[in-house]
Write a structure and sequence with these properties.
This protein is mostly helical and about 220 residues long. The chain has a single domain, classed as Growth Hormone, Chain: A (Up-down Bundle), CATH 1.20.1250. The protein is about 80% helix and about 0% strand. The chain has a two-stranded antiparallel ribbon with strand order 1-2. A hairpin with a 2-residue loop joins strand 1 and strand 2. The longest helix has about 30 residues. It is globular and about 65 Å long.
Length: about 220
């Protein structure tokens, strides 16, 4: 539940930035680095600078994760949710919300923090901010299940298909609020953030309850 709720956040960011800000996919850097190289060949130096900064900001999010994890005892999932909330406030409140690239940078920064914080769920390695590996895993595991009828393989396949479903529900939600409220639809990202926080609280509460029963 925690993982799939976080997928809604990732999907929301993806839909929001692509829908509102020049087709920029803030969650990952593959496409952005390709744009950087293409812009270099076309002589679009301003865009080269903007995409290079995007790359550095994304790297900065990963550096931040490593440093905070070394220094802070709080769960990185909580840290990620706090950073995500801060990013929503920055994007929604400041004047540059209408500037395509500047509006994306806060999301570019927090995306890898979420990726690292929520990268494992029930033993499955899965990204909550983009879909390439999730599609690969879903397709391969489904094929293996059809061929072997192994229940554990089927459960893993279902996990990845649900990951894709919740991610794209987040995309759909962001598109719907963007149609109604434009760039200020970013404020609705607090809905999946709150859902993820609630799911995490429930998960931790259940862990404490089970631990108490074991120790009783």
């Amino acid at each position: 539940m925690v993982h799939h709720a976080a997928c809604i956040i990732g999907g929301f960011w993806a839909g929001y930035t692509i829908y509102n800000h020049a087709d920029i996919f803030a969650n990952a850097q593959t496409g952005n680095l390709i744009h950087l190289v293409i812009s270099s060949f076309k002589g679009r130096l301003t865009l080269v600078g903007l995409m290079a900064l995007c790359f550095l900001v994304y790297c900065g999010g990963n550096v931040f994760y490593v440093l905070v994890r070394r220094k802070v005892r709080v769960s990185m999932k909580i840290v990620s949710l706090i950073c995500s909330s801060a990013a929503v406030i920055v994007v929604g409140a400041l004047p540059f919300v209408r500037c395509d690239y500047l509006a994306c940078y806060p999301i570019v920064f927090v995306a890898p923090i979420q990726w690292n914080a929520f990268k494992i769920a029930n033993g499955n390695s899965s990204s909550t901010i983009f879909s390439s590996n999730n599609v690969r895993q879903a397709a391969m595991l489904t094929t293996r299940y059809v061929l072997g009828k192994d229940k554990s393989t089927g459960a893993k396949a279902r996990f990845y298909w649900l990951t894709l479903l919740f991610f794209h529900l987040g995309v759909a939600f962001s598109c719907a609020v963007s149609m109604l409220f434009g760039v200020y639809g970013i404020w609705f990202c607090f809905v999946p953030i709150a859902l993820t926080a609630a799911a995490y609280y429930r998960y931790q509460s259940e862990k404490l309850r089970v631990a108490a029963l074991v120790n009783a």
